[in-house]
Every structure is written in C-alpha cells, then in structure tokens.
Amino acid sequence: MKLPKQVLILLLCCLLVRFTAQAESFGPTGQSNEQSPAAPAQQSPQELQQLVAPIALYPDALVAQVLAASTYPTEIVEADRWMQGHSKLKGEELAKEVDKQPWDPSVKALTQFPSVLENMDKNLPWTSSLGDAYANQQLDVTDAVQTMRQQARKAGKLDSNEQEKVTTQGNTIVIEPANPEVIYVPAYDPWLVYGDPIVAYPGWYPVPGIFLGGVGIGFGIGFGVGFFGGYGWGWHHWGYDWHGRSVIYNHNTYISHSRTIINRNNFNHNNFNHGNFNHGNAFRGGRPGAGGSTFHGSSAPHFQPGTRSGAFSGFDHGGNVRGFSSRGRSSFGGGFHGGSFHGGGGGRHR
C-alpha cells in the first residue's frame, strides 16, 4: 500500500512541475514577443506648414475650433451630412437641434460656419492628417500657424480691415473679428496667398465660400453668432493661447478625447474604414452610399519628389492648383469689391 501511494505522490509532483513550466512559458515569453508601439513619426515644419495653410489666416477662435474638431474626422463627416439634411433649419432652431447631437463641442461649433465644415468633410484626408498632427505635435502646429501668418503679412496680404482686426503681440500675430458678434471667414487660395507658392495638398478640393482663386484674400457675408451664444460650444467659448501654444475651450486648455486619432499607431492612414471610422462599411466616392470604389488614401501630406527646393519653392505651375484657382473663380459668381469678396457660400449676417 505504501509503494502505490509514493508513486502517486511522485506523479502528482511531476505534473505540478510541468504545468508550472508551461504557465511560465505562456507568461513572460508571450509578453516578450509583443512589440512595443513605435513612437509617432514627426512631421517636418514644411509638412506642417502645408497642413495649416488653409486655416492659418482664420480668426484665432476659428483656428482653435478647426484644430480641435480635426481630431474627430468621423464626427465631421456626420455633422456635415446632418447639416445637408437639415438645411432648412436656421438661427435659434438650428442651434437647439445641434445642441442635441452627440458630437464634440468643437464639431458643434463649426455648424456656425457651414462652408468650413463642408471643407473639412470634402477634404477628409487633409482633415484627418491635421488632427493627427495637432494630437501629436501640438506645439509645432501652433508654430506653423504663426509662421504662415508671418509669411502672409510679409507678402502684404494680412492687415486689419472692416472684417477683422490684426494685431501683433511680440512675435505673435493675433487675428480677431472687428465686430465680435459678426464673424467673417476669409476666402483665399492657400497655395498662393503666402507669397512663395506652396505645393497643394494632394487631391485638395476647393470649396466655394472659403476658396478664392488668385493671390488675394476676400470676405463673404458675415456669420452672426448671436443665436449660438447661449450654448456652451458657441463662438465665445473658444480661443487660442499662443504663449502656451494650445487651444482654449471655456478658459481651459482643450483636451481631445477622440478615439479615432490618439496617435499614429492607433489610426490607419491608408484605410478610413478602420476602428471608429466605419460608416456603413465604406466611404464610397467620398460620400456614404454613393457609387464608386471604397475610399482609400493616405492622410499624410506628400510632396512631389523633385518639385521643391526649400519650404515652398518648386510649385507645380501646370498642375492642380492653377486648375483649382480657375475652378474656384467660376464657382463664386463674384469677385473682389472694395477689398472684400462677394459671392456664394457665405454666411448670413443676422
């Protein structure tokens, strides 16, 4: 009786040792095989300047709203589609309905400026890349905005007028509306207005209302923000801290909680149908439900090899930008009058 009992104990000890070894092999070994996420690649100052060029000349608070909202590309798409489906809503009625939506405050704020929201939707690769850059290189993006403003001022394109007040605080250029209750969104060609031409962002679509062919800056009809003033996401809740180099929302530094763009390791640039970006399985033809192939494209800026020397030289004179400029002019049915642009796509001065 003693021998079988000893053998049984021995077998149990062997099994225990074996299972312990297997558990250890699944633990540390399995963990060691996992690759730690690589640090996000930093975009160059020239790439960041190309990214911010379309918005750098906007009023400070609008720059803040755009940068914050660009970290929510999915919601940008949803909001623009929603606005298209509710085009009859105006004023207080529109503000009430927007307030009910589950979007980030920055996205709600952009419903005050439909042409800006439309631009971010139609140029979605640019929008997502801008959000990516702001999420990962906030200080550098802020510097890029100021660099472009300096370029515009040097080119004689950025001065105070009836629509906006441009001031300098040290080396910082501040842009504010001349009337705090009426906001004018400048219309310009972001690839030509800064003096030395910039290589256009790949596939850029010029949205009427904020794109103006040529080298000047124009202004459409002012957007009255009074109806949105009573909501926590309205115009007066936004600003930019140029010294701290961050977006300000409700007197505090804005922090994005987007799950779409946290860092480049969590956002697939080559397929917008990844993670939170799944809208009915695909963006087709740039619009959900439309015909065409699934929308794929890199959201990072790409400069054409051999087309530039330095930051902005080597402009593709025969390429897309010149074609876009002509297209932009024909889209408005208007032009410069007394320094201001009058044409379609503007807001309503209430």
Give a description of the structure.
It is built from 10 helices and 11 strands. By secondary structure, the protein is α+β, with helices and mostly antiparallel strands. The strands form 5 sheets. A 3-stranded antiparallel beta sheet has the order 7-8-9. A two-stranded antiparallel sheet has the order 1-2. A hairpin with a 2-residue loop joins strand 8 and strand 9. The longest helix is centred in the N-terminal third of the chain and has 32 residues, at 2-33. The chain is elongated. Mean pLDDT is 75; it is low at 27-32 and 263-350.
* C-alpha end-to-end distance: 100 Å
What structural class do helix, strand and pairing data support? Answer: alpha+beta
Q: Strands across the major sheet, in which order?
A: 7-8-9
The total strand number stands at: 11
| Rg, Cα atoms, Å | 26 Å
Show unreliable segments.
27-32, 263-350
Total helical segments: 10
Share of residues in helices: 25-40%
Overall shape: elongated
